[in-house]
Amino acid sequence: MNRAEKRRNDRNKKKKRFLTDSEIEEIKKKATDDAIDTIFGMLFILPLSVLREQGWGKVRLQRFNDSLTDKLKEVESGELDLNKVIDDMRDNYGIIFKSEEE
Questions:
Q1: Is pLDDT larger for residue 21 or for residue 11?
Q2: Of 27, 30, 26, 61, nearest to 47 (Cα)?
């Protein structure tokens, strides 16, 4: 590679690429979606682990995971209100979440 080619390569390396607003929003949305998927994946694994320890098998665990995923989609779409679920758990089953006690 001669000197002119080296300089051309160096100039090309230094060039900056600017992103449009829509590209930035797309990158943010993808990063947010990835983070949410990771967080909920981590949160889902705990109940599945407990149920496995309680003797649940592969089929029941998969059904539970599918149901949990469906409920999450209902919450995301606004079809299901989490506050109503919390109230239902408290009123019908006596399950109180720590955030309610404070």
A1: 21
A2: 61
More confident position, 100 or 87: 87
pLDDT at position 101: 53
Per-residue confidence band for 89, with pLDDT thresholds at 50, 70 and 90: very high
CA separation for the pair 57, 74 (Å, rounded): 26
In 3D space, the residue among 76, 34, 29 whose CA is nearest the CA of residue 68 turns out to be 76
C-alpha pair distances (Å), 66 with each of 61, 71, 73, 76, 101: 9, 9, 11, 15, 30
Q: Which of 68, 92, 90, 91 is nearest to 80 (CA)?
A: 68
User: Above 80 in pLDDT, residue 12?
Assistant: no
Q: Are 94 and 87 in contact (CB under 8 A)?
A: no
The alpha helices in the chain, defined as continuous H runs, are 3-14, 21-53, 58-77, 82-93, 98-101
Q: What is the dihedral of CA 56, 60, 63, 69, to 10 degrees?
A: 0
**Radius of gyration, CA atoms only, the chain:** 24
